[in-house]
Amino acid sequence: MAKGFADQLKSELENVYNKKTKGFKDAVFELCSDVIKTTPVDKGDAVSSWTPSVGVKKTRVIRTGNEPAEDTSTVQTRKNTYVAQKQQELFAELENWNPLTESFYFVNTIEYIADLEDGMYSRGVETQKTTATGFSKQAPAGMVRIHVNDWEQYLKKNNVNN
Q1: CA 140/CA 59 separation, integer angstroms
Q2: Is the dihedral of CA 13, 19, 20, 22 positive or negative?
Q3: Which of 50-54, 59-63, 120-124 ranks highest by mean pLDDT?
Q4: In Å, how far are 41, 51, 82, 125, 128 from 94, measured between CA atoms?
Q5: 8 in a domain, yes or no?
Q6: Which helix (H) or strand (E) holds 122?
Q7: What is the domain range of residue 78?
């Protein structure tokens, strides 16, 4: 039996909804992933403290329990390990998220995260990791605002705005 107009319309609306929802979730994943990737790493506390959640905001530092192996000697290797772990957590949270009915939270409660976002490190003291004025060499412009400012581009890239 042929589909009636109402069934065709319903099917098309579901199709559009599913594509837009997927695109929106992909945009959120990319934005949060970029924040994670640009978070400065020393020991990894700040980057490993990013906590994605759906429905209820998790306001404490939650560790994955998967600390890098002891032979992890470089900052970049440590960062890659934490980024991969956090992206897995992020993907798991977003997989069943319904953006129309549920809130999504991306929180970092490490005590110095605001300083890192402001580009600071060690409160204005020059170190190997900072400029003479105390700004982080890894993220002098922060990590959240530089990506949130590009939100429209994330949506466009994932075909949400058209």
Answers
A1: 26
A2: positive
A3: 50-54
A4: 25, 12, 18, 39, 37
A5: no
A6: none
A7: 13-157
How many distinct structural domains can be found in the chain? 1
Which stretch of DSSP H or E encloses residue 6? helix 5-38
Q: What token pair was written down for 137? A: 């060499």
C-alpha–C-alpha distance, residues 79 and 92, integer Å: 20
For residues 34-61, average pLDDT: 85
Helix (H) or strand (E) holding 104: strand 104-108
Q: Assess contact for 106 and 133: CB atoms under 8 A.
A: no
Question: pTM above the 0.85 mark?
Answer: no
- In this prediction, residue 40 has a pLDDT band, given cuts at 50, 70 and 90, of confident
Torsion of CA 70, 72, 75, 80, to 10 degrees: -110
Distance CA(149)–CA(115), nearest Å, equals 19
Condensed to tens digits (0 to 9), the pLDDT of residues 83-118 reads 899 999 999 999 999 998 999 999 998 888 888 888
The answer to the question of residue 4 being in a domain is no
